[in-house]
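Dear Dr. H.,

I hope your travels went smoothly. While you were away I took the liberty of generating a structure for the chain from your last submission, since the lab meeting agenda had it listed for discussion. I wanted you to have the full record in hand beforehand rather than looking at slides cold. The sequence, exactly as received, is reproduced here:
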Amino acid sequence: MTGRPVAKIGVIGTGTMATGIIEVCAKSGYDVVFRARGEDKVAAVQKKVEGSLAKAVEKCVAAYRACLGSNPQDAEAWY
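The corresponding predicted structure, in token form, is as follows:
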């Protein structure tokens, strides 16, 4: 049995688990729609996800710079 490909994911709620599901699905390339009780909840989820993504980027950049600092040829492993 073959299912249809998933293009969009809907999440109801804005709690810790829902926010994690929203982030993981978005990172995986899916369009994500979520429902919240109010605009303040929407803003809170967006802030949490943006903060988490910014932290992940910082870690990646730091690791890349550390690799460059030790031996520039080692940076080729990042490509």
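Two observations you may find useful: The chain is about 55% helix and 15% strand. The two ends are 38 Å apart (CA to CA).

With kind regards,
E. W.
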